[in-house]
From TrEMBL:
Entries under SUPFAM superfamilies matching the protein: Acyl-CoA N-acyltransferases (Nat)
Pfam families associated with the record: Acetyltransf_1
Protein name: Acetyltransferase (GNAT) family protein
InterPro entries, per the entry: Acyl_CoA_acyltransferase (IPR016181), GNAT_dom (IPR000182)
Alphabetical list of PROSITE patterns matching this protein: GNAT
Domain N-acetyltransferase: 142-304
Keywords, ordered alphabetically: Transferase
Molecular function per GO: acyltransferase activity, transferring groups other than amino-acyl groups
Length: 304
């Protein structure tokens, strides 16, 4: 089954009504098409894509190893029926313990949220954006500078502290090889001169912001998530545990926002976990708001 332009238009029109910051819908990737009939006889469909991660893939830091991702192709109606069909499909597939069913959908579609909850999916992550918010000045004594490859041993513990915290409240998985995977990823970003900042107080590294630039253009991954343009992406943001709640995050992010804006970005985005009691409040106060919610159930066999 090929998705017609009509199906894409229906989805784009629904997205535009839901949230002006959503990009237009794009064709789903190749995979297994599942479909369901609505009471009025019309059909809705989605594409189910199975991915198996290599043990050293960066995505192992936040993902199950075996992912069954649904890409719904519908507008306002039909999510409950499509999820029923997804459940029937999964019941016929053998899945392992380190597996998940996952679907990413506009946060403001609360009708769909009800259907996801009813099927056992939980909102593990939120992609949040910030555009046009004023940069809050936050003067203080934090020294913020760009990190270099020489700082890798200093910033790795800060990155791991963020992973440890996030593993308690969201999708992050602290696998035995997580530190090596994170070290390799940080090294690559520093090596290609991506913006990574280190915050120091009295010469001690107390904060890390690992960021990069993301150009949303036709055919890129990011055009499925954010409108076209140059964006700043905040991948990891961490304050050392004993320094949290004292304004360091605020000082650090005001520098990051200023630098990202100076580089010509139209906004910034990041992921946070809705059960994180620190970051949810922190990011909202810094001008971020939900755009997409990543709904997951682990293991995949728990989809109901
Ligand atoms: C989320 C995180 C980065 C925020 O950094 P932080 O330094 O703790 O945040 P701040 O101190 O700037 O702000 C947090 C609170 O401290 C308050 N605060 C600010 N300055 C303060 C000061 N001088 N004295 C006391 N409290 C202060 C802030 O007002 C804020 O509280 P409020 O929001 O209730 O007003 C940090 O808590 C952290 O690393 N958490 C664990 C990892 C994590 O969740 N990372 C983000 C993943 S998306």
């Amino acid at each position: 089954m090929r998705f017609t332009d009509g199906a894409l238009d229906t989805q784009s029109a629904w997205f535009a009504r839901l949230d002006p910051m959503l990009p237009a819908a794009v064709r789903p990737p190749d995979g297994n098409v599942i479909s369901a009939a609505l009471p009025d006889g019309t059909r809705v469909a989605g594409v189910l894509v199975q991915t198996r991660l290599a043990p050293d893939a960066m995505a192992t830091l936040w993902s199950a190893l075996e992912v069954w991702e649904l890409h719904p192709m519908l507008g306002e109606h039909g999510m409950p029926q499509l999820l029923d069909q997804w459940r029937r499909t999964m019941a016929r597939r053998p899945t392992g313990p380190d597996s998940s069913c996952l679907v990413t959908w506009p946060s403001r579609d609360v009708g769909a949220a009800r259907a996801f909850l009813d099927h056992g999916l939980v909102p593990l992550s939120t992609l949040a954006i910030r555009t046009g918010a004023p940069i809050l000045p936050s003067p203080g004594t934090l020294q913020v500078r760009r990190a270099t490859l020489r700082d890798i041993d200093t910033i790795l513990p800060l990155a791991m502290a963020e992973l440890e915290y996030s593993a308690m409240v969201g999708s992050t998985v602290l696998r035995p090889g997580a530190a090596q995977v994170k070290r390799a990823a940080l090294t690559r970003h520093l090596d290609q001169n991506d913006p990574v900042w280190i915050g120091e107080r009295d010469g001690i590294a107390v904060a890390l912001a690992e960021c990069w630039f993301n150009e949303s253009v036709g055919g890129s991954w990011s055009e499925t998530r954010v409108r076209h343009g140059l964006w700043g992406y905040i991948n990891s943001f961490s304050v050392a545990p004993s320094f949290r709640g004292a304004g360091i995050g605020r000082e650090m992010i005001s520098v990051v926002h200023r630098e990202l804006a100076a580089a010509g970005t139209i906004g910034s985005f990041l992921y946070f976990n809705p059960p994180n009691p620190l970051s949810t409040v922190f990011w909202a106060r810094q001008g971020y708001r939900p755009l997409w919610t990543i709904w997951e159930v682990r293991p995949a066999s728990a989809l109901r």
